[in-house]
Write the structure tokens for this entry.
Amino acid sequence: MNVSATTKDGPVEQLDVVILGAGFAGLCQLHKLRNDKGLSVRVFDKAGGVGGTWYWNRYPGARSDTESFVYSYSFDPRLYDEWEWSDRYPRQPEILSYLEHVADRYDLRRSIRFSTSVTQAWFNDATNRWDIETDTGERVSAKWLVTGLGLLSAPNIPKFKGMETFTGDTYHTSRWPHHEIDFADKRVGVIGTGSTGVQLITELGPRSKSLTVFQRRPQYSVPARHGPMPKHEVAAIRNDLAGYFDSVLRSGTCFGFTESAVPAMSVSAEERERVFEENWQKGGGFRFMFGTFADIGISEASNEEAAKFVRGKIAQIVKDPEKARKLTPYTLYARRPLCDAGYFETFNLPTVDVIDIAEDPMAEITPKGIRLKSGAEVELDVIIFATGFDSVTGNFSRIDFRGRGGQKLKDHWAHGPRAHFGMCPAGFANMFTIYGPPGPFTNQPPAIEWQCEWVANTIVAVDGMGAATFEATPDAEQQWLDDCIAIADGTLFTKIDWWAMGTEIPGKPRAVMFFMGGMGAYVQRLEEATAAGYAGFVISKARETVDA
Ligand code: FAD
Ligand code: NA7
């Protein structure tokens, strides 16, 4: 242990870098900084193992809705060659095994403290280092702080009246127990129909005695089309791994399919129908939204055409007209696009029902179940909260981050998160937030990996200059936020309430939290800023600015 500072409480370990989180981001960043660059690194994760999202979300049906060949790291061709995904859309246990394999293959675990939450991280103006404390009382000092805290990680459990009186079992999908639960003789209630609820309901419908869905807003969802990965597709990627991932990074969403450049209303109604049907058959939510036409997320008219197509499919699939009515979405098709393994079909089971709680709200949770405003009570043995997350900023707001002059991140982000390129909040020197806000809205692993590489190179470059600090200027941060807002306002994604707008938690500020300009544009802009000597950033020795 490298101890060069001692306080009244004892020695403090001195590290080059501290990383928060051991999911896709934390593991990749650790590998790049410790194994590739030779820095001393410590990772903390409150989880008992690696995996992040895939450690916590063990609910039945949990799986990626990105195709496996692009929901992977690409930094090592040997890793890519040796790992065989069994399915086009891998299930949670398989993704967790993959990340455990990565941790073992690159000997990462020895640098990770599990079951340890970081509670505070303060930038020390006197030392130009971060002082970090954990809930176990450990204190470390590091020149650099990198967060891999995840966007969808801190659970959102709304305060439903009477919830503590329920005598059955309750679960939140993202804090699922590590053992199998048998629902065969259980009357299950599920609150929430986001991506998680849709997966869970589809899986549990046939496996429970009865399943009642408490739905606030119906969703657009298209088939995923699960199945084994065709070997020739994987072989083609392996033959040109770098080229393939480069093209993924130059795309908008990093989902690995060709995004359409054709506006929906520029073709005939028959051609639109043909394209929608073709992509409905191919499967995948992002493919349906971004692979069919270029402007489903931009033009209300085009959006309505896609929405109408999905509504038509729901009418064909769901046999009971009353269930079909409740399940038919009426808002813009402008939340994260979902895909499923037979979600709407599940409601054809006589044991699966849906209650529209916008029509008849939940009045309270009772000892026996859920009572609606109309007075009807649904008796339940189990209530599952599929109510999502305190998204994007949730894990940040649970840690006491302080930057220069003791400024709290909570205050800096009081009106919504801000950070240059979604990675560098101004005033928080030597801090990087991997896949932080406002950053690209993509399939995450390729974007995460690209940012980790940029951070590793930046740290080495700044250290190589003998500099003490690296930080974004307030002007650059503001300009980035203004650009993010302008781009997002040109889309339909800001016209509806959903987690990316911060509206899922009462009282949270509604804010643009993503760069909707696409990953390709993001990479290009950051590459240009870097080549221009880190334009928009300040690199300093203890007191004077270094000319990069
Ligand atoms: P995470 O995996 O969320 O890891 C963050 C880690 O930080 C956690 O392990 C957490 O314990 C830790 N942490 C939090 N607070 C502290 C603290 N105070 N101290 C120490 N550690 C802390 N994305 C896609 O691109 N495609 C998909 O198909 C997809 N499917 C998803 C399905 C589900 C059910 C969910 C929930 C998310 C999905 N996502 C998907 C998003 C997913 O979160 C990312 O793809 C990716 O796993 C994020 O990795 P990460 O390392 O950035 O964050
Ligand atoms: P989401 O997408 O935020 O979904 C949460 C669901 O819970 C959604 O249907 C909400 O209704 C519902 N919800 C939330 N709060 C309440 C209250 N108070 N009452 C009733 N219903 C409520 O989270 P997920 O976990 O499904 O998915 C998040 C991301 O993780 C997803 O995009 C993937 O990337 C993985 P609403 O529909 O908003 O009316």
In short: The chain has 17 helices and 23 strands. The longest helix spans residues 444-464. Residues 390 and 505 are 7 Å apart (CA to CA). The chain has a mean pLDDT of 96.
